[in-house]
Amino acid sequence: MSWFVTCSQCGKSVVYESGQKIPELCPACAETVKKEAKRFLEKEERRKEMIAVGVPEIQERRIVKTLGLVCDEQIFGMGLPNDATLEKFNGGIALTWAERVRRARETSIRSILAEAIEKGGNGVVGISLTYEVLGYEQDMVMVLVAARGTAVVVEQ
Fold first, then answer.
1. Secondary structure (H, E, C), 91-140
2. Does position 124 have pLDDT exceeding 80, yes or no?
3. Does the structure show a pLDDT above 90 at 14?
4. What pLDDT digit, counting tens, does each position of 36-81 carry?
């Protein structure tokens, strides 16, 4: 007995014989997903080996090639409660905000490392971070966290 199954990714119909496990993806989409997962894992391995510093040089290593500027911006909003007394602010609101800023900073740095990998680099030098309040409207504060640096190839 044969089964006609529609691929959840591309929408194509695929015929499967009885006794086979019926997958959600056609063979072509399944292969694409495998390749993307493999590329993702390879990038993660390369990211672990990346060198990221805030100074323009890396001690005891020579920069072989400069690949250019890498940058990322994270913009997010934080709500202000109407009853934000000093006691309440110190009791938890500031900690929540600090955690959101920390996550934005980490995301921004991860993004510039990924961009450096895409350019063929194994390091980012001269990393600088910018924090800026963009505005306030209707009990919402908009904050920018940005990271930038120079993608480089460092001698191993």
1. HHHHHHHHHHHHHHHHHHHHHHHHHHHHCCCCEEEEEEEEEEEEEEECCE
2. yes
3. no
4. 888 888 888 887 788 888 888 888 889 999 999 999 999 998 877 6
For 51-154, CATH number out of 1.10.760.10, 3.30.110.70, 3.40.50.2300, 3.30.430.20 equals 3.30.110.70
Give the separation between CA 58 and CA 122, rounded to whole angstroms. Answer: 12
> In the structure encoding, which two tokens stand for residue 129, read together?
């971070």
| Beta carbons of 27 and 15 less than 8 angstroms apart | no
SS3 143: strand
Report d(CA 22, CA 30) in Å as an integer: 12
Q: Give 14-83 as a 3 state SS string.
A: EEEECCCCCCCCCHHHHHHHHHHHHHHHHHHHHHHCCEECCCCCCCCCCEEEEEEEEEEEEEEEEECCCC
